[in-house]
Request: fold
Amino acid sequence: MFAFMGSQYRLEVDEKEFFIDLLLFHRRLRCLVAIELKVGEFQPEFIGKMQFDLTALDRHVRHENENLSIGIILCKEKNRTIVEYALHDAQKPIGVATYEMTKTLPKELRGQLPPPEIISALLEGIET
Reply:
């Protein structure tokens, strides 16, 4: 249901550059989805950055027939209370989730993804 729009997606606001880690488009929701990847613990200031990114997307990238953009912040760790406080007065739809690193693919996902060699071949020639 997602379409890939870009990684390190460049936004320009008043001649200044800003980058979104990963930008997707959700076909059923008909909206842009900005994803920020954080290697450490959630910090409240991540919300301000995400709200800025979503406003810029809505004003400069979103088409008239699309819904407002949504944001997802993926962190290594989060404190539920700090996330709740940071999101309390947020004006944009933003979610915060954690991720877990693993060295092997879970059994239920094996066979659903192409092998690394095919992924590498597909990615060759894609401009960054």
About this structure: The radius of gyration is 16 Å. Strands lie at 2-13, 16-26, 31-37, 70-75, 94-98. Residues 2-101 form a domain with the Trna Endonuclease; Chain: A, domain 1 fold (CATH 3.40.1350.10). The first helix runs from residue 45 to 60.
